Each structure stands twice: as structure tokens, then as C-alpha cells.
Amino acid sequence: MSIRDTLAGHVLGFGTAPLGNMFRAIPEAEAQATVEAAWTQGVRYFDTAPFYGAGLAEIRLGEALAQRPRDAYVLSTKVGRIILDEVEDASARSLGEKSGVFAAGRPNKIVNDYSADATLRSIEDSLKRLKTDRLDLVWIHDIAQDFYGDEWLSYFETARKGAFRALTRLRDEGVIKGWGLGVNKVEPIELTLDLGEAQPDGFLLAGRYSLLDHERALQRVMPKAAERNTEIVVGGPYSSGILAGGAHFEYQKAPAEIIAKVERIKSVAHRHGVSIKAAALQFVLANPAVASVIPGASKPERIAEDVAALAEVIPADFWRDLRAERLVAENAPLPIDRA
Q1: Structural domain total, the chain
Q2: Is pLDDT above 50 for 171?
Q3: What secondary structure does DSSP assign to 291-311, as a single string?
Q4: How many CB atoms lie within 10 A of CB 19?
Q5: pTM of the shown model
Q6: In degrees rounded to 5, what are phi and psi of residue 183?
């Protein structure tokens, strides 16, 4: 079954990283209200991960969806990190992966493990936190993070022999509907497609296919994925928030050159009366390889903004001007190309 078929036409999903207290401590009531708003607005695809707040996002999502019919929504989570009962002290957390982004998440220690046994344990733990009996899609998470350095190839090899095979078996047995990599680097996707031995159903690519950063994905990932009939779910369409009024890019304070590019895009958008959120979402979905886009949200009102942005009518001249001013790659598919 393809990723698009599994998602059953839900082109707009909800990425739950913010529910793990991403960048700030979110009150429990606000987190629950945000998921409720997503459901009310018709969102039926929810993506999460153990890493988001050391299990916090999964716990909150599980609580919010507990009374919903399981057949009514699509659920994906990730493997590659095991959340331990052991609690890290504050000094250890300040030096680890959770520093900054999920500093306000649960204090539980996280262990990287892409082996087959860890994959099965991670799924079992996620099912408990999510209060459900099954997952639809499973992504192998963050296998090439910057903080891994050259070690990422070692993690990849462990995953190739472990998580890849375990998830393939679960899919073939009908336990899950599909699997792939969930990454914010294109290199592991390229390597997986080049190997040819694994048969992932698709990929979740975060931050590497957006208005601000899409050239390498266009050159290397999208064509290869199309050749193998694998589809892409795009995460981070707002580039960590900078395209939605925030100050972050790549999970850090946006540098001057990125801020300048955003201002140029905003200028074109203002000239045509277009919201930058609408431009960001509709740009992503114009690529035929993209099955769904999953912006994150931590406030209920943000969900309504996303739904409105998807439905907004954008004049063709806006896209022509973006291309003419070289704010998007010349070969990037745009909504006007489908007309």
C-alpha cells in the first residue's frame, strides 16, 4: 500500500513535536485543546515520536485521541530512540540532544538504538503511551543528525541490519501499513534509495523541502523516489517557524541571510495579498511526489490558520514573481504548473 493510500487523502496532517514542549513549556490544557482543534478542523493524520519531549508528545496525543474511533484517523510514530525510566540530571540534559529544543520536556534519559530489538521495544512503548493497539506508519528517526558527526553512517548500518528488516517484517505481516525514514537530512534517503535492497514505502523529510530550502531534495531525492514509487511526507514546512512569524530556522535563531530571504518572500506575498503560510503549504504540495504536509502547532488557533492557508486562493502571478525573482528553484514544481 502506498503512503498516499495509507493517508487516505489527508494531505494536511498534524506534526506533534510542539506537544513535547518544543521551545517552551505548554500547559496541558493548551496541548489537549490544540489536538481537539485539529480534529474539529478535519485533520485525521497525526505524526509523533518518542523523542518529542522524551515521550511527552505521545502521552498527550494518546490522551487526546483516546475517545476517538481508531479507524477514523491515521497515526505514525518513530523508532531509533528508547525512552528510559531513568531520569537525567539537569547538567546532563544541557549537554545532550534535548538541550534547547526539548529542554522543557520530560527529564527521562534517551538512548539511541536502531537495532531490530530496540525497534520492537520502541513500538511497544509507543503503543502504551499512545493508548492504542496499532500504528499505521513507522519512521526511522533522525539517523543523520549533525550532532552524530561521521558516526551517522554507523547508526545507518545498524538500522539497515536492524530497524529496516524488523519494519519490513511487520509490514509484510500486516502489523503496520508502511515504513520509511523520518529525517531532516537528504543523505540517508539518498543512501537508502541507492542501496536498493530495502523497500521503504516512503519518507518523512523535515525542513529539506520548503520555500527556504528545497534545491538538494529536488535534485537528488524527489526523482529517485519517483522512480521507485515511494512518496514523501513533508515535515517542517514553516522551516522551524520562521515562515510562520517565528524566529527559528533549523531549530535555532534564524541567521541574517535567512531573515533577509523571508523578508523578500513576504514582500512578494504582500504585493499579491497572499499569506506566507498559504504560500509555504501550497508550494510543498505542488510537488507530485509529496503525499502530505504536517505542520506543527502548539495553540488551537494555529490549526485553523493552517486549514485556511491550504484553502486560500493564490494568484498565478505570485508564483510567477517568486520564480522570476529566483526565490524558488527554476525547476521547483509550482501550483501554476498543474493548471
Answers
A1: 1
A2: yes
A3: EEEE-B-SSHHHHHHHHHHHH
A4: 29
A5: 0.94
A6: -140, 165
